[in-house]
Every structure is written in structure tokens, then in C-alpha cells.
Design brief:
The complex is a heterodimer of chains A (about 270) and B (about 70). Chain A has 10 helices and 9 strands. With about 270 residues, chain A is α+β, with helices and mostly antiparallel strands. In chain A, β2 (about 35-40) and β3 form a beta hairpin. Chain B is built from 3 helices and 2 strands. The termini of chain B are far apart. The chains are: A alpha+beta (about 270), B mainly alpha (about 70). Chains A and B meet through β1, α3, α4, β5 and α10 of A and β1, α1, β2, α2 and α3 of B.
């Protein structure tokens, strides 16, 4: 038989392991193995066995460049984390946390017990929601003249100038439009961040990946918010109001979630 | 004009492929790039997520393959 290792998905309180027996959970990351809770003290780690041959550092690096291999397994990881997170507090771990022995997981739970319990406490009753800010550049550009006094003056002056002058002024207007549009969008994004941060317990601005342009315009900013479940309706209403407010500038907001709190697991 | 606000619940909306595409990318970003890093005996750092996404975009351009990947989620 080939050598096995232990893949760890998330960490929860010991009581969660009792409430959610491993057999009741979604399938493990590899088809031929089962999930199990590894318990130590007051904590429990959800794990399953994986063949060391595919999950060693070298072979994983190779597998990771295969998008379908990675996507299918990341989805399994996420489905499990989501399932448990919907029912109990968890600390979601990053993809690819692997132990060679069950003992290693137990040791980690006891060595890091204090920090892990602290994170669980901080996340209790809270969910992560994502907010994506998209902008349609064409709408933004055409809306910008009406909101920028400097531009409006220039446009009016250009209309009354001689053809030669007007041509030069138009050049200036075009350049200014680009700058003003960028500044206006930044102001909107900062406003969204401020207003939604005020309605959440924690906020993070995330990096925008290159491939995330869509037909709804370009993704300009991405945030994660940690929100108490009972505060969510207020948060959602605020986000919808912001979306309506900024629609004339070509801005669209998208709210995604609830996510396991992947972005809020740092040890303070 | 369509609504400037969308709420995408990440559970159980796999039939709407357009939304599912996005949620798949978002999911990968969460799982591969975020979450607590615990020093396991082996810890994999995903070096270039953009590369994986590019590969995934090729994969998702075939609707059938996309459905297959998403079904594995259930």
C-alpha cells in the first residue's frame, strides 16, 4: 500500500466534532478516503488521508499547474469548510496543509490551542462577505463632465473658442477627463470601503486578480468584511444603497457570501 | 438599466453558469490564497494563482467541462 498523509481542512471546537459526525459531511478531497475529526483538548481538526505520492511538495507543485486538478480539489475543500461553517464556528485553513501523522495534527492543536481558540472566539456568530466593485469605464467617462466643475468650464469655453483653439482645448479636456475619472472612481471606492467598514467588525481590501474582468465592466476593487449574522441585513441594505447612489457613474456592486472567514484568520 | 446591485449567495446556485463562473474563481481565490496558514509537516504555497486562473478560464470556456467541475462540488 502506498504511503498516506493527512490533509487538514479546518479547525473547530471539540463540541462541533460531536455535533457533526464525519460521516454526515460532504466527500473528502480524494474519493477513496473519508473525513475524520482529530480531537485534542477542546479543539478538533477536520482531516482526511491523502496519498503522499500526489501531495508531497514536489508533486503538488506539478499538480497545481493543472487547473482542473486544482479546481476540483479546491472545490472539495471549500464545500467541506462551507458545510461546517454554516453550522458551527471554524477556522478555515489554506489549501494544502498536510501532516505526515495523526499525532502531528494533535500536537499542532495543543501547541497552537490558545491562538486557535482566540480566533474561534473572534469569529463566533460572524460571517465573511465579499464586496466587488465593478466600473463601466464608458459610463464613468461620460458622466464625469457633469460632476467635475473644472471640466464643465473647459467644455463651455471650448464651445466658444475658435476651431484651432478648440482643438487644443479638446485635447486638454480628454486628458483631464481620464484623470478626473480615475480620481472620482477612487473617491467612490474609498467611500464604499469607509461606509461598509463602519457597518462591519473587520474589513480587508483584497488584491484584484488580472483575470477578473467581466461583461459588467472591470473589477476595480475587492473587499472582505466580517459581519455579525444579526447585522447582515443592515450591511446588505447599506451596500444596495451605495450601489444605487453610484450607478450613474457606471459603478456596480456585487455582494458574495456567506464565506467561511478565510480572510479573518490571522493570529492577533 | 439593470440593477447596480447583485447579491450572489454562494450555495446551490450552480445552474446559473454565469454566476457560477465567478463564484468558482472567487472560491479558488479564497481556498488557495487565504485561510490560516498553519505550519504543517508539508505546507503548500500556491505561488501563481493567476496562472491557475488562466488555465481555468480555458477550462471554463467549455461549458460541459465547467459543469463537470462544478458537479464535483455537490
Amino acid at each position: 500500500m502506498s504511503e498516506l498523509a493527512f490533509y487538514v481542512y479546518c479547525i473547530a471546537e471539540r463540541a462541533t466534532a460531536a455535533e457533526l459526525p464525519a460521516e454526515s459531511l460532504p466527500p473528502a478531497i480524494e474519493d477513496d478516503s473519508k473525513l475524520e475529526w482529530v480531537v485534542s483538548g477542546e479543539l478538533a481538526a477536520l482531516s482526511s488521508q491523502v496519498p503522499l505520492a500526489s501531495y508531497s511538495e514536489e508533486s503538488l507543485a506539478e499538480h497545481l499547474s493543472d487547473a482542473s486538478w486544482t479546481a476540483a480539489r479546491a472545490m472539495r475543500h471549500e464545500t467541506i469548510a462551507e458545510y461546517v461553517a454554516k453550522r458551527a464556528g471554524i477556522v478555515p485553513l489554506r489549501f494544502g496543509t498536510i501532516f505526515l501523522e495523526r499525532d502531528g495534527i494533535e500536537r499542532m492543536l495543543s501547541d497552537k490551542g490558545r491562538e486557535l481558540r482566540e480566533i474561534l472566539e473572534r469569529l463566533r456568530g460572524r460571517e465573511e462577505w465579499g464586496v466587488n466593485v465593478f466600473c463601466d469605464q464608458n459610463i464613468l467617462m461620460s458622466s464625469i463632465t457633469s460632476v467635475s466643475p473644472v471640466l464643465r468650464e473647459l467644455v463651455e469655453a471650448a464651445a466658444q473658442a475658435s476651431p484651432g483653439q478648440s482643438y487644443l482645448m479638446q485635447k486638454k479636456i480628454d486628458a483631464l477627463k481620464v484623470d478626473e475619472a480615475r480620481a472620482a472612481l477612487n473617491r467612490i471606492i474609498e467611500g464604499v470601503e469607509k461606509s461598509l467598514s463602519d457597518r462591519s467588525d473587520d474589513a480587508k481590501r483584497l488584491r484584484v486578480l488580472k483575470v477578473e474582468a467581466t461583461e459588467h465592466g472591470e473589477l476595480k476593487a475587492k473587499f472582505a468584511f466580517l459581519i455579525q449574522q444579526s447585522d447582515f441585513d443592515r450591511f446588505r441594505d447599506a451596500a444596495e444603497k451605495l450601489a444605487q447612489e453610484h450607478q450613474p457613474a457606471g459603478v456596480r456592486l456585487e455582494l458574495t457570501g456567506p464565506w467561511p472567514a478565510y480572510n479573518f484568520t490571522q493570529i492577533s | 438599466m439593470s440593477s447596480p446591485f447583485d447579491q450572489v449567495l454562494i450555495q446551490s446556485d450552480v445552474e446559473q453558469l454565469e454566476q457560477a463562473d465567478l463564484s468558482l474563481l472567487e472560491t479558488l481565490d479564497h481556498v488557495l490564497n487565504r485561510g490560516l496558514v498553519i505550519a504543517g509537516e508539508i505546507t503548500i504555497a500556491v505561488a501563481d494563482i493567476d496562472l491557475i486562473f488562466l488555465g481555468l478560464n480555458v477550462l471554463l470556456s467549455s461549458v460541459e467541462t465547467a459543469n463537470e467541475v462544478l458537479r464535483k462540488r455537490e
